[in-house]
């Protein structure tokens, strides 16, 4: 653990130039009550009752509200002690990596009884003196993360203690200033969230068209087409069942020895989940992980070969020229079927089930490239495939534009974040454009 002298040094550097009118206090001094660790209940009490925030929700969401969660049964005493309220801050008590220790999320207007599990610390602010959104943003800033690192243990599992969290010194601008800063940053997050909902709707629209045409067989003109038997069950007459390897290539390109680019954009498995890429890292090739070898082009579909039930897949559109991904992915490149059709076919629940059933290994079940190539898929007529491709491309173009806007909004917010929570510039003089 970093010692108290290190904490004092970090604190001094963070608060050396606070603006006039800003103070500094222990975090515990602005709480309505002492911090509290979450509840632990035996499995007999799981599956019904109040929602429970687990580490998965804490790390996945900055704002915790009405997401789908597990449930546990609480008695009256536990409700009194452990139910969450609007404005509560939640902190990760432990993490497999140092950066995750003390990760903070904000509870926002839960619509039903919600509690939190034992690996999480709750801090309830005195809202007479402290705005919860301001302190959510403070703990997300580089300053807040540095302070949190000063109390984190450096063992196999990194962690923080609530008693030490309360001792950390934090900046105290006036409540009005806190609210102004929170409003500026929230404007970005609100627009990001709105765009994210629109992205999900566009994805769902494409998925619904795929399901209607190629699962329910209610495609244009289906009334005049009869069903015939196939290895996949009844299918429209004229459609085929083929191996994926007949219409697409699996792992067609890798970086050859001696032809490595000087710099690459890199995607690892941890950054991909259900059609989303959380982070693309940039490396000099010599500094990149040894698994950085797979080449992926526009329209390529990447699928993690490890634990396929986790659904770590994504469609790659308009990649940078030097995009390289981990060899832990299979890369499927369309050859005789449009990539939009293949993407939806290879991410449908039936295909996920196929991969899961073919995965071998106990600790880390994995599939092989041959499992992809040998998978049976449905191949409708070319004209129908092209019609679906055109519909889906239009939807995904709109999705891509929204994703780019979100990336720009996040970058701008993250540039503003440390300046605002440290008091420079004066937020009252800022003109923020989030259009």
Describe the protein's architecture and organization:
The protein is an alpha+beta fold. Helix content is 35%, strand content 21%. It folds into three domains: 4-173, Adenine-n6-DNA-methyltransferase TaqI, Chain A, domain 2, CATH 3.90.220; 174-224 and 380-435, Helix Hairpins (Orthogonal Bundle); 240-379, DNA methylase specificity domains (Adenine-n6-DNA-methyltransferase TaqI, Chain A, domain 2), CATH 3.90.220. It has twelve helices and 26 strands. The strands form nine sheets. A five-stranded mixed β-sheet has the order 2-10-6-8-4. It has a four-stranded antiparallel β-sheet with strand order 16-25-22-23. Strands 20-17-24-21 form a four-stranded mixed β-sheet, with no helix packed on it. Helix 4 (132-140) packs across helix 7 (175-214) and helix 7 (175-214) runs antiparallel to helix 12 (382-421). It is globular, with a radius of gyration of 25 Å. The two termini are 44 Å apart.
């Amino acid at each position: 653990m970093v010692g108290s002298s290190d904490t004092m040094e970090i604190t001094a550097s963070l608060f050396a130039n606070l603006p006039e009118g800003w103070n500094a206090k222990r975090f515990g001094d602005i709480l309505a009550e002492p911090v509290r660790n979450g509840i632990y209940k035996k499995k007999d009490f799981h599956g019904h009752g109040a929602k429970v925030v687990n580490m998965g929700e804490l790390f996945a969401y900055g704002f915790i509200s009405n997401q789908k969660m597990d449930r546990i049964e609480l008695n009256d005493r536990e409700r009194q002690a452990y139910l969450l309220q609007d404005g509560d801050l939640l902190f990760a008590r432990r993490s497999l990596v140092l950066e995750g220790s003390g990760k903070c999320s904000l509870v926002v207007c839960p619509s039903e009884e919600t509690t939190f599990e034992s690996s999480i610390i709750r801090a309830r602010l005195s809202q007479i003196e402290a705005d919860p959104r301001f302190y959510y943003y403070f703990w997300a800033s580089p300053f807040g993360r540095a302070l949190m690192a000063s109390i984190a243990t450096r063992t196999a599992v990194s962690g923080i203690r609530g008693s030490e969290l309360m001792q950390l010194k934090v900046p105290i601008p006036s409540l009005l200033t806190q609210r102004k800063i929170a409003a500026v940053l929230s404007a970005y997050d609100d627009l990001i969230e709105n765009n994210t909902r629109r992205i999900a709707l566009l994805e769902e629209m494409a998925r619904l068209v795929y399901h209607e045409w190629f699962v329910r067989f209610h495609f244009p003109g289906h009334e005049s087409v009869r069903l015939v038997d196939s290895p996949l069950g009844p299918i429209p007459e004229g459609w085929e069942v083929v191996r994926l390897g007949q219409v697409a290539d699996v792992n067609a390109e890798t970086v050859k020895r001696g032809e490595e680019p000087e710099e690459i954009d890199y995607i690892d498995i941890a950054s991909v989940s259900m059609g989303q890429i959380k982070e693309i890292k940039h490396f000099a090739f010599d500094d990149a992980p040894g698994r950085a070898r797979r080449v992926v082009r526009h329209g390529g579909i990447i699928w993690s070969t490890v634990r396929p039930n986790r659904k770590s897949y994504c469609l790659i559109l308009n990649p940078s020229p030097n995009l390289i991904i981990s060899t832990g992915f299979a890369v499927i490149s369309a050859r005789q079927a449009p990539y939009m059709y293949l993407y939806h076919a290879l991410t449908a629940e039936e295909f996920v089930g196929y991969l899961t059933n073919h995965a071998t290994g106990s600790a880390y079940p994995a599939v092989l490239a041959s499992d992809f190539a040998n998978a049976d898929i449905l191949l409708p007529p070319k004209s129908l495939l092209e019609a679906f491709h055109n519909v889906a491309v239009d939807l995904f173009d709109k999705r891509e534009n929204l994703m780019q806007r979100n990336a720009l909004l996040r970058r701008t917010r993250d540039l503003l974040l440390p300046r605002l929570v440290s008091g420079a510039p004066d937020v009252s003089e800022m003109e923020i454009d989030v259009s």
